[in-house]
Amino acid sequence: MAKALEGVRILDFTHVQSGPTCTQLLAWFGADVIKVERPGIGDVTRGQLRDVPDADSLYFTMLNHNKRSITIDTKNPKGKELLEGLIKTCDVLVENFAPGVLDRMGFSWERVQQINPRMIMASIKGFGPGPYEDYKVYENVAQCTGGAASTTGFDDGPPLVTGAQIGDSGTGLHLALGIVTALYHRTHSGKGQRVLAAMQDGVLNLCRVKLRDQQRLAHGPLKEYPQYPHGTFGDAVPRSGNASGGGQPGWILKCKGWETDPNAYIYFITQAPVWDKICNVIGKPEWITHPDYAKAEARLPRLKDIFDTIEQWTKTKTKYEAMDILNKYDIPCGPILSMKELAEEPSLRQTGTIVEVDHPKRGKYLSVGCPIKLSDSPAEVTRSPLLGEHTDEILRQVLKLDDSKIGEFKSSGALGAVKPIAAE
Ligand SMILES: CC(C)(COP(=O)(O)OP(=O)(O)OC[C@H]1O[C@@H](n2cnc3c(N)ncnc32)[C@H](O)[C@@H]1OP(=O)(O)O)[C@@H](O)C(=O)NCCC(=O)NCCS
């Protein structure tokens, strides 16, 4: 069965996390992703946070599945020649270099268009055009500048970054959508185009509800926030602790075992349509008709007390027991699952969301598989490439070079350091 993106060839200049997440998704959908890496070093994450000596780190392996790796020194003139050849044969160039790097390499958008007018050139940068466009950005910088940190945490504490990599992987997702959209557009226009996803924009997009709340603030206090009714609101959206971002109030509550287990908690949503069931489950049937509790609006100033009362009930159950009971009554809730629990969850293994991958240097490891399931194009996760593993294969198969040409490029140093002959 052909994969959805079969026939699409990606020239992958990405590194670290944001760009690699994007090209990994495209590879899972069937694109041929050729990762260009610096000879001898490669993507810097190969060596970062290493857990097994001399093996590519999990950081690298978990972000670069299903790709091929070629090493080219892009600052070498013969290396540039190879790149030109690859640009001619590829459909999309994806990069997340610091601003200006690609221009300095000699591959500006104008130049890329000259080489291949059908080429789609997709970039992740920290910021879009404006005062900060030349700045380098990492995950937490994006979380801070995109509105996530100022709105995350508790009111009496400092801004917090989240464990979800919304700046890196979030922007990678945005870019992947931009790329497939541009590929579709090219089927009509016949031309490539530039695709830009700025990390600040990506984070802000994911913080959309907070910009909603910023505007609601002008019309009075945010009644679903824990600051209401006793606290004060300033002129910017405050941190809302564990309050729900939607119209159905929620909070994280302790469950049985919370004294020793840091994850014995459950997210409990007091969804209005099942309020009567909630009251019955927690042993407060009188709240169903009581004027202070019967209507959602009346409950807003009492949310803290309501959640304290519900917690008296959740504390008598494990998070899994609570989940089972609540779901019997269609009451939305979410147990706080640790990474250990997720790694061991059989249903996630069955769907391929968690996969075990074998690697020649590190052995078996767990990874997150493709989270998007296409019925006619299922993703099969294969291991990440070793540095330069496919250099020869790509030179022959994609660039159609013969032995003597390959020898020429090798001796130029374009594929890596030229080793001195022993007698020299
Ligand atoms: C992530 C980031 C901060 C890393 O910065 P960095 O480690 O300094 O890496 P850069 O992107 O600046 O590239 C460094 C150099 O490597 C060189 N290089 C990269 N691949 C090469 C290759 N195959 N051959 C030769 N040189 C290569 C580049 O040409 C550049 O050199 P130059 O600065 O002399 O022009 C930066 O790339 C960035 O801001 N990217 C955009 C935002 C982003 O994606 N951030 C999230 C990362 S998860």
Description:
- The structure is a single chain.
- The chain has 424 residues and is α/β, with parallel strands linked by helices.
- Helices cover 35% and strands 13% of the residues.
- It contains 17 helices and eleven strands.
- The chain has a six-stranded parallel β-sheet, sandwiched between helices.
- Strand 10 and strand 11 form a beta hairpin.
- Helix 1 crosses helix 7 and helix 6 packs across helix 8.
- It is elongated, with a radius of gyration of 26 Å.
- The model has no long low-confidence stretch (mean pLDDT 96).
Task: Write a brief caption for the model.
This protein is α/β, with parallel strands linked by helices. It has helices spanning 18-28, 58-61, 77-89, 101-105, 109-115, 139-145, 168-189, 199-206, 208-216, 275-281, 296-299, 303-314, 319-328, 339-344, 346-350, 391-397, 403-412, and strands at residues 9-13, 32-37, 67-71, 92-95, 120-125, 194-198, 250-254, 265-269, 333-335, 354-359, 363-368.
